[in-house]
Amino acid sequence: MMAETPCNPTMRLTDLTALGQLRLQHGKCITLVDSTVGSPINQQPLRIPGIDAVMHSCTKYLGGHSDIIAGCVSSTSTDFMRRLVLVSHCPHPRSENALKASHACVHTRSLRL
Hints:
Helix content: 25-40%
Low-confidence stretches: none
Oligomer: single chain
Mean pLDDT: 78
């Protein structure tokens, strides 16, 4: 199951607690929350039981300068992250597909302002 909250552009909210409970009732699925608009400061979906992973478009909200394209996926499940690496054809999180240090420095500029 995937949810975006707040939903862009309507800003409607998804009840993440209900979503997590639904996932726990039907344990064979995975829940992924796009929390780009909510940002890590305002919302931490991984603290809600039943939410498996959260993603952020770093380009939109964390970057803000339109000079870098990046995103991130976080999970409390090591198994989920291993499976994600396998299906994304990325041999290791520190591989050539990972954000280079120079690009990460540009990204953190927005966070320091």
